[in-house]
Amino acid sequence: MLRITSVLFAAALLAQPVQAGVMYSWHQTAASDTMPKGMNLELVFSDKAVAQGSLKLDFETACWIGECYDPQDSLLSLRYWIDEDGDGTRRNYINYGYRSMPQSGFGDRIMLDLSFLPGGYLSGSLLANDTNSDFEMKSNGSTFELLVARSDEGPCSFFGPPCSGELGQLRAEVPEPSSAAIAGLGLLAAWFGRRRRR
């Protein structure tokens, strides 16, 4: 019975979706007086892009003129937002997703020139604009500086002083094993232990 259960569990694990890519997220190293606290940035790249060691992109999904297409498959998603109060509220939100409609309905402009460094770090330059919010940053080694961040409303408004100066790193996140995977490994270990006792 345990053998059948183990086989069924292994089949269920194989049927689960595989991680689509590698996610890098923002880790602040120095705050700025002009930048609100709670900046978040997450980028997901295809495994192929990371393996190549560098990536250069410059494209726009121009939906307002009927060209709502995405000419690349290396940057799978980019999410940027500010959560000043730490309550999960996303302001100045840019939510780019590969092969998905732009959040603003008009388009996304993405420009990046990045290198994937040893240890799971990024370096280079990055600009994103969804016509409602934008930001630009550049690195010295693995430390990025936010050059400017603007938005139609909320923090970093186009009508106020520009936000800039925050320092941080973009580091690869190691995915945690799912509970199903852990349970499956436990069942397989029990099965092998039972076989060895026979």
What is the overall shape? globular
Q: Give the SSE order as H and E letters.
A: HEEHEEEEEEEEH
* Strands side by side in the biggest sheet: 3-6-7-8-9-10-1-2-4-5
Structural class: alpha+beta
Q: Strand share of the residues?
A: 35-45%
Q: Which whole number gives the mean pLDDT? A: 82
Helix count from the secondary structure assignment: 3
Number of domains: 1
Report the span from N to C terminus.
15 Å
Which consecutive residue ranges, at least 5 long each, have pLDDT under 50?
Answer: 4-19, 176-183
Q: The biggest beta sheet, please?
A: 10 strands, antiparallel
CA radius of gyration is: 21 Å
Total count of strands: 10
Range of helix content: 10-25%
Describe this structure in words.
The protein has about 200 residues and is α+β, with helices and mostly antiparallel strands. It has one domain. The protein is built from three helices and ten strands, in the order H-E-E-H-E-E-E-E-E-E-E-E-H. The chain has a ten-stranded antiparallel beta sheet with strand order 3-6-7-8-9-10-1-2-4-5. About 10% of the residues have low confidence.
